[in-house]
Amino acid sequence: METNELHRIRLKTTREREWYGNSKRWSSQNPQNVEVGTGQFIGVAGRRGNELDCLGLVFLSEWPTGHGSGANFTSPKYVGGGGGAAFDSVKWYEEKGYALVSKIEIFSTDWHITGVRLRFTDDTAGQIHGTQDKYYNHFSLQAGELVTKAKLWPSEHNNRSYPLTFDLDATVINLDLQSFLSTSKYEVRVHFVD
Q: Looking at the predicted structure, is the pLDDT value of residue 157 above 70?
C-alpha cells in the first residue's frame, strides 16, 4: 500500500547556519519552498495518526502594529498525506503575542519523518505529533536568529502539498482553509494561553 510521507526539512538562518532534519535515505522528489515571512518561526500544523502524515511550517508574515492588532501568518503548504487527525503547535498569548520556536525535534525511520516536537521561547514544549522512532535530530534557534529559507521534501511516495492560510486577531481566529482533498475538510486550532 502506498503512503504519503514527509522526508526532509531544511532551515537556513540569518547566522548562516543550515539544518537538515531528515530520514536516512535520500529522496529524489522536488522540495516545496516554504514562505518564511519575517523569519520568526512560530509553529507547525499538520495531520497525524500513529505517525506524522503531513506537516506545514508557520512563520509570522509581518509584525503586529500594537496591542490587540493581531498578527498575520504565512501560508504554508503541507507536505505529506491527508490521513490522520489535524494538529497544530502554535502559541499565542493575548497580552504578550506569540511564543517563538526555540527548538525543533524530529523522529524518523530510514525512509520518512514519523514525528515532530517543538520547544518554545516561553520554556514550554509541545507534545510529540506522530511517534518517536529509530532516529532523532534537532535544531535550536539562538536568541534573535531568524529563518531565511525553509524547504520540505516529500518522500518517494505519491505526495501532495496543500495550502493553509492563517489570519489571527487578538480575540478572533479566522481560518481560510482550502480542502486538502475534495471529499474532506480539515481544521487547525490555535491555542490561546492566559
A: no
